[in-house]
Amino acid sequence: MGFLDLFVVALMPVLKVLLVTGVGLFLAMEQINLLGPEARNYLNKIVFYVLSPSLLVSNLAGTITYKSVVTLWFMPLNILLTYIIGSALGWVIIKITKTPEHLRGIVIGCCSAGNLGNLLLILVPAVCEQSNSPFGDSSTCSTNAEAYASLSMAVAAIYTWSYAYAVVSAYAIKSAEHKSTHSAEEAPAPSSDSCTETLLPSSYSQISDESSVQVELPLTNSEERTKMSFCKKIAQCVKSIMSKIDLKKVFVPSTIASIIGLIFGIVSPIRKVLIDDSAPLHVIYTSAALIGEAAIPCMTLVMGANLLKGLKRSEMNLFVIIGVVAVRNIFLPLLGIGVTKAAYHFGMAGSDSLYQFVLMLQYAVPPAINVGTMTQLFQSGQGETSIILLWTYAVASISLTLWSTLFMSLVA
Question: Is the whole model's pTM more than 0.90, yes or no?
Answer without folding.
Answer: no
